[in-house]
Write a structure and sequence with these properties.
Helix 2 packs antiparallel against helix 3. The strands form two sheets. The chain has a six-stranded antiparallel sheet. It contains 14 helices and twelve strands. The chain is α+β, with helices and mostly antiparallel strands and 443 residues long. It is elongated. It is 51% helix and 16% strand. The N terminus is likely disordered.
């Protein structure tokens, strides 16, 4: 009998342990420390559940074997119901813990937080089988605003519109502000909640809702809602909180890697791309323009008499000029364009989907922005102003090579210097026939 009990199959637990054992684990040193700790806790919890459920099931089986004839019919029925309920709970936990290790690995490996929300959505679907799921991220541009990042079961009109919720607005905003895990009953009994109010948030079905919190500054960085549940685990609030905590760690992990990547690609002084990354992005942009048969132009410029400014006012003041030039460039170019600090006081701007004529207009707009800006001590500069000079070259029109485009734009820059500075010129377009080169293009 003892041997028989040792081989007892525990519904849900045995396949759970087998599936966990089969999960390929990466080296611990490659894991985010928080992810590694959570994975250890998960395995311990699974083992504890298996042990306790195994004892409970074995005990009930021994009772049934010892005297089934003596048991009352009602007691036997109660026992069968308890066993079915226990088996159902174990199966539900099995689904969760089988999916969990793979989710942890993907969250740890992911470097883009846009992909975190779909991963969480899959796990929520496994746990609750809800008719509706909404996952919101905190907006990076507007404080206290949360934007829909992923969803299931929302009306198409709301999804297409792009749902935004403010802290304190409706149920989602209430949880964002108060940072509590809540179910539908909690909103009814809460004296602080005063209803959903007007807007699309009233159309979100919420049976459970949980905030994703930043462990460092305790801000709400996201919200998870599930509604119309077809599966309700016994500890549903703890389950959704665990998913929310996983989401928080995934977002923080992605943000951390994004900051590291940004620091590697960014010029620390101007906050534009550095030369290496700018050149790489130019090559990628040219390849894309070639495939899509679109124009592309570059603008290479530097600061007129910058050495004079540095010698007169000092390098700290010169650094401040470079910072301000970076701000002016970032504030003038379009969202699809990009810029890089290409040397000491030299900058490269890449105008996507822009021909040479359009680039000359855009470059001269930037020149005028710099000329009109009230830089400190500029009255001591030659001409009484701090200005820039630059050259423009166009992909396909002037060259198909990124290196050649930069060379042509650099030649036009020096032509602008010779002509008196504070101006933008288009490069001479090379001619294969060997005839006379045309004059640089002027506005």
């Amino acid at each position: 009998m003892a041997a028989h009990r040792a081989r007892t199959y525990i519904p849900g637990v045995n396949p759970l342990l087998m599936s966990l054992a089969a999960v390929p684990m990466q080296p611990w040193e490659a894991l985010n420390p928080l992810m590694a700790a959570l994975l250890v806790i998960t395995v311990l919890v699974v083992l504890a559940i298996g042990y306790l459920l195994g004892r409970a099931l074995s005990g009930q089986m021994r009772t049934a074997e010892s005297g089934p004839a003596a048991m009352a019919a009602s007691e036997a029925t109660d026992m069968r119901r308890a066993l079915r309920r226990m088996e159902q709970e174990v199966n539900e936990m099995t689904l969760f813990f089988v999916a969990l290790p793979d989710l942890i690995k993907q969250l740890n490996d992911n470097r883009d937080k846009r992909h975190i929300a779909p991963l969480l959505l899959r796990l929520l679907d496994v746990i609750f089988e809800p008719g509706q799921i909404c996952i919101f991220y905190r907006s990076a541009r507007e404080d206290g605003v949360f934007k829909l990042a992923a969803s299931k079961g929302l009306p198409r009109a709301i999804e297409d519109k792009g749902l935004l919720v403010r802290a304190g607005e409706g149920r989602v905003g209430f949880v964002a502000e108060h940072q509590m895990v809540m179910d539908a009953r909690d909103f009814v009994t809460s004296p602080s909640f005063h209803g959903d109010g007007p807007g699309s948030t009233g159309r979100i079905q919420i049976d459970l809702i949980a905030p994703m919190l930043d462990a460092d500054d305790h801000r709400t960085i996201g919200i998870i809602t599930v509604g119309n549940l077809t599966r309700t685990p016994r500890n549903e609030k703890k389950m959704i909180k665990m998913v929310a905590d996983l989401g928080s760690m995934g977002i923080k992990n992605a943000d951390y890697h994004q900051r590291i990547q940004t620091q590697a690609n960014e010029d620390s002084l101007t906050k534009l791309y550095n030369k290496r990354f700018g050149a790489d992005q130019l090559s990628l942009s040219i390849n894309r323009a070639e495939k899509e048969n679109k124009p592309l132009s570059i603008f290479l410029f530097d600061i007129d008499h910058f050495k004079t400014y540095n010698d007169t006012n000092g390098h700290l003041e010169g650094d401040e000029v470079l910072r301000q030039i970076g701000r002016l460039v970032a504030g003038t170019i379009r969202a699809d364009d990009f810029a890089a600090r290409f040397g000491g006081e030299e900058f490269l701007v890449v105008f996507q989907d822009t021909d040479k004529e359009g680039a000359l207009i855009a470059a001269d707009k930037l020149r005028r922005q710099v000329e009109s800006f009230p830089f400190p001590h500029q009255e001591h500069q030659p001409g009484g102003k701090l200005t820039i000079s630059g050259g423009v070259a166009a992909f396909r029109t002037d060259s198909r090579s990124s290196t050649e485009l930069i060379r042509l734009a650099d030649e036009a820059l020096y032509e602008a210097k010779k002509e008196g500075r504070n101006r933008v010129l288009g490069c001479r377009t090379p001619y294969m026939s060997g005839g006379a080169e045309p004059e640089p293009i002027r506005l």
